[in-house]
Write a structure and sequence with these properties.
The protein is globular, with a radius of gyration of 23 Å. Strand 13 and strand 14 form a beta hairpin. The chain is 32% helix and 21% strand. The chain is an alpha/beta fold and 414 residues long. The strands form four sheets. The chain has a six-stranded parallel β-sheet with strand order 7-8-6-9-10-11. A six-stranded mixed β-sheet has the order 15-16-20-17-18-19, with helices on both faces. It has 14 helices and 20 strands. It has three domains: 70 residues, MurE/MurF, N-terminal domain (Udp-n-acetylmuramoylalanyl-d-glutamate--2,6- Diaminopimelate Ligase, Chain: A, domain 1), CATH 3.40.1390.10; 153 residues, Mur-like, catalytic domain (UDP-N-acetylmuramoyl-L-alanine:D-glutamate ligase, 3-Layer(aba) Sandwich), CATH 3.40.1190; 120 residues, Alpha-Beta Complex (Protein-Tyrosine Phosphatase, Chain A). Helix 9 packs antiparallel against helix 10.
Length: 414
Amino acid sequence: MYLSEINKVVDGIIYNDVYINKIKTNSKEIEKGDLFLAINKGHDYINEAINNGAVAIISEIDVDNIPYIKVNSSIAALGKIANYIRNKYSIPLIAITGSVGKTTTKELISLVLSKKYKVLKSLKNNNNHIGLPLTLLNLDDSYDIIVAELGMNHQGEIDYLSKICNPNYAVITNIGSAHIGNLGSKKNILKAKLEILNGMKDGYLIINNDDKYLKKIKYKNIIKVDKSSLNIKNLNYQDNIEFDINNIHFKINTYKHLLIDFLIAIRIGMIFNVDLNLISEALVEYQNSEGRLNIIKSKYTFIDDSYNSSFESLIGGLEMLKDENKFKYIIIGDMLELGKYSYKYHKKINKYLKKFNNKQVLLIGKYTKVIKGKHFNNVENIINYLKENINTDDIVYIKGSRMMHLDKIKETLN
């Protein structure tokens, strides 16, 4: 690809032309023949990128002695380039959004489809205006399918992402309370999630039909997923979740509230003609991402759910613990971005905690003060308390928004 070809996309001011291999935004990853796209503080590392072998630059400032394109906004240029690369290849793109379960569902769909196809997927939770385009920069003609995660916390963000990736299949996992502080109501959250359709032409919307908001959606090409739509038989929620579809047995090491994510992955596998036996094999291989209901067994059992928190995901985690007979330390940090609803949603947690015996609730944060339990001023105090009181075979469940840094508990005591 020539620099002049890219300039037609970004509509900047070009200074000389040159052939480039790959486009990268991390100066440390630059290899000879690459283009360095300077984003935000990346402008401070232009010289490092050149020293590492960059043959061209895209930036918001002038650059000396190398071909470059000057643009008004490097982030806007990134989005335009990503959309250009996406549309160079006529392959299906599955875009996933939802209040809870986006990353899990993305990983499950990728696992299932990888049994038959080469899949390009969003790494970790690269789901915003920078992360999604960076995923698409890796696209080439060796891939068969793209699986992309779209995140948001304000109106208009998914609209932007959808118009970059132009999905053929749009998945919405659920409508929950996450970001309700920014969006004001669940109806507005639904509206924001439906922006995923704005970049899609004649594609399919795939929804969780157990969600009371999503099940009311009317769309010309809609696929509703629930237990009945997949004709599930012999469903059993014991140590694992087990069920049959078309006489194929599924045994999944997961929790009840995550079942819908697995069912969506199964349905998409069926749409893409992946054999049900292979789908079953793929789902057995699934491992939770770090900080997402990871069970770590050492002297104690840690259930690390500290990656982030919302009301729905916390209640799902508590439901999982409800029937556990061992003594449980339930550590809860603030759920953020709930705005004027913050105290209301935190107070509602008390109703679920009443169902537990053999437990102590340890709390940290501003809003958790309305939850009944023992409150701490910082994570270090929680760690010291656990060191003094925890017994072998106890269970420690950790849940809170990322800003609460509850992952330190696992790192210190594990």
